[in-house]
């Protein structure tokens, strides 16, 4: 069931408790590496998350992953091979997040050796948090589904439910091949990712659950039909088809557009769902990202809040968009530096089978945002 009428991406359920995660359980086994122990001791704790699995790689040890709640830890112990897939998937969705926000003041920057991955930025229930929760949930679906189809997991394989004949705009075809098992990917992602949010009810938990589901559904939205032709001389009189996931970039592009149109919401009085903040809003929130708090401007570094600021960021002098120097630098101005750039040019195909290129040098102007200027009164001692 949905949170409120028309609010289909979120699900009714319990939410998160405090923003500080439960302390990681101690493991009696001596198998924990010194490296992970040092990370656990010296890394600042804010709101540890399963996202940190991506930083551990092959060193995933369920009892010592900071930020896992009991349900997630149990799933980790039951399915260690799935955790490896989620670890690889985490790297992929973080790269996608950074690609989507590469021209924005907040550029999905991560903190090395920090259990929170993104720092305190995610404590704010902003549209940036909405995007991160959606893309991370989508990343788990994508990673698990791909691993199932590639035969890397014991618990799942291809989707064998599609049988018989069907048709599309090109005519009839037979179901066959190896369809991606998107339903299993969604099922496991829901159980694992949503577990933390189902512990205590509050507005942030409901927001996260809604955006998590939007992310999962975004992957399914771009399933595509792939076919193999049969017949005389490849006439394609007979076709065998299956469903496959599209490239993850399509999911990233889609969720990035949803970020642009994200809807501000407030929790209803009985604490069971949301209301749209704008009383004049007439549309459906079913497939939209939602947020509770407005975003900061991200212009200046604020270590306490986790904002890195835009000082030193490269900007586009001629652009009027978010990557333009006026917007990126928040009106502080920019510095220009002439740099020598080497690129491949005059490429020619050489039989057989290589491409030979020359190295060409040119000089380009690189513009970077000026740092924040301290008020004069702060320099008086």
Written account of the structure:
Helices cover 30% and strands 19% of the residues. By secondary structure, the protein is of the alpha+beta class. The protein has 2 domains: 34-298, no CATH class; 314-379, 2-Layer Sandwich (Endo-n-acetylneuraminidase fold). A 4-stranded mixed β-sheet has the order 1-2-4-3, with no helix packed on it. A 3-stranded mixed β-sheet has the order 6-5-7. Strands 10-12-11 form a 3-stranded antiparallel β-sheet, with no helix packed on it. A hairpin with a 2-residue loop joins strand 1 (165-168) and strand 2. Helix 5 (127-149) crosses helix 6 (182-193). The longest helix is centred in the middle third of the chain and has 23 residues, at 127-149. It is globular and about 70 Å long.
What percent of residues adopt helix (DSSP H or I)? Answer: 25-40%
Which sequence of strands runs across the widest sheet?
A: 1-2-4-3
What proportion strand?
15-25%
Largest sheet data: 4 strands, mixed
What pattern of helices and strands is seen along the backbone?
HHHHHEEHHEEHEEEEEEHEE
GO molecular function: cytokine activity; frizzled binding
Keywords: Developmental protein, Disulfide bond, Extracellular matrix, Glycoprotein, Lipoprotein, Secreted, Signal, Wnt signaling pathway
Family: Belongs to the Wnt family.
Pfam family, one: wnt
